[in-house]
Structures are given as C-alpha cells and as structure tokens.
Design a protein that fits this description.
By secondary structure, this protein is mainly alpha-helical. Helix content is about 75%, strand content about 5%. It is elongated.
Length: about 120
C-alpha cells in the first residue's frame, strides 16, 4: 500500500477521535454489564454480555495499538527527515559528507504493515 505521511497523520487524528468515542461507549457498556441482574438462573445472559464486553475491549485495544504504531511510523519518519536535513546542512563546501542514517526501525514497521511511503 502506498500512502503519504500527511495521510497517515490524518488517519492518526481520526483514530484518536474514534478511540475516545469508542472508549466512552465501552465504559458505558461495562457499567451496564456490571449492574445487570441476570434473568436466567444459570446467568448465561450475563456471561454473554460479559463476552460481548470483552470482544469490544479487544477491538478498542486493537484500535489503540494501530494508532500507536502509526504514530511511531510518523515519528521515525520525521526524525529521519530531520537527520537528513541536519547532515546536509553540516556539509562544507564542495565535499559533501554523507553519513549513514539508521532507518531500519522505520523500515521494519513499514514492512510489517506492507506500507510504502510515497
């Protein structure tokens, strides 16, 4: 997948807003489950609600993890970009000095999610 850093930043902002909304809904649902009085003798209905709550919490954690990973990608990209600019500005006269910039961490994250920065 090809994506620009600006689009990743927009996705992070949208994920953060969605995450806050989802968390409020999850908290409200967990309060309902906690206060729910089972109608069945065996309590199967409450166990079902608890399973739904656990599934919703798992989705929330996935959303949160995705936002953190994307934020890390952007942070590493920005740091690499700054390092490149700094190294270029530190070269003197006509003999440019190029240093190796370690971008392996960023590349590993991008490979994991099949992302190519354009």
């Amino acid at each position: 997948m090809d994506i620009s850093i600006n689009k990743v930043k927009m996705v992070i902002d949208e994920l953060q807003a969605a995450e806050m909304t989802y968390k409020r809904q999850l908290d409200a649902f967990e309060r309902i489950v906690y206060e729910y009085r089972s109608m069945e003798k065996e309590g199967n209905d409450k166990r079902t609600l608890k399973k739904i709550s656990d599934d919703l919490n798992s989705e929330y954690q996935s959303m949160k993890k995705l936002r953190k990973v994307l934020s890390e990608v952007v942070r590493e990209y920005d740091n690499t970009e700054k390092a490149i600019i700094k190294n270029i500005s530190n070269t003197s006269g006509s003999s440019p000095v190029f240093k190796r910039i370690d971008i392996e961490k960023t590349q590993a994250i991008l490979r994991k999610f099949h992302i190519n920065i354009i």
